[in-house]
Design a protein that fits this description.
With 356 residues, the protein is α/β, with parallel strands linked by helices. The chain is built from 13 helices and eleven strands. Strand 2, helix 2 and strand 3 form a beta-alpha-beta unit.
Amino acid sequence: MRVSVIVPVYGVEKYIAETVRSLLEQTYQNFEIILVDDASPDRSIEVCQQFSDSRMKIIHQQNRGLAGARNTGIRHAEGDYIAFLDGDDLWLPQKLAKHVEHLEASPEVGVSFSRSALIDSAGNSLNTYLMPKLTDITVEDLFRSNPIGNGSAAVIRREVFEAIQFQDNLYGTVENFCFDDRFRRSEDIECWLRIAIQTPWKIEGIPEPLTLYRVNAEGLSANLLKQLESWQQVLEKVRSYAPELIEEWGNLGMAYRLRYLARTAVRLKDGEMAVSLMHRAIATSKQILLEEPRRTLRIWFAAYLLYLLPQLFYAQLENSAAKAVGLIQKRRIQKEQIRQATLNGTDLRGQDLRLL
């Protein structure tokens, strides 16, 4: 099966070479690379042009944002499977091989995603992972969180996009869209919700952290408020075709999104914003305290510690907690890898299960 890997390119001059190298080093080699130059203002495309590989093609367009770049890539894609890799993220060498194996073995799965390991702006491991639910993912789960985690984690069957595409005239001519170009944020979760609501395809993850997701601390609080506005936009779009779901899950979904943004504010060291967002989350729906009391209280506690404690003291506490959490996550991932391999009849002897 051929895979089309779509890489939106905008303002990633510092990272794009490493991103492309991580693609070319894949153990599964039957793929094409579609680099979409979204009117990047820096030398990103010049960097891409230094690579010589017949599987690479570069498409130039006026700026349409991340969703628009992905849609352009989909229109040019020839693969049976379609994957996305943001221009500042990385893949481990077995990424495509694992997803192709997963999709081939699970014909009911339309979206295969992996866990992600977090790296900083310099590419150093943060020793923590995105640890979402992997199986039996429902529409309700997508209102609570984005299990796929980021745009670089998923590999998707072409038929899934064919099932959800719609036509619109946003740029002077009628085109097919899979992601919604009107979204400049939250375009991923908006698309995953449409897949879950409008198609029978399953969304399912594999335990390995095969995506390296770069955490950038740019934008800070203003960006958090824009993310909140984009989630409200997602809810309004879902209301347009599934109002009964918004009636049932809208407030709870907003509470979970506020909690997620509070956690992000903690990472960005904005204690005042984190406390404010947690208060809003609880006020929006107290059900999150009933459904996930430990996680909700942990984020609330972290927000107040950040807000009240001296910065240096908080940093020491955070570092110790992050190391402990990272070790727990690593052990859990390794156990799940072994369990999955046992179920699949795979012999893991001699394989390296070490994680970043």
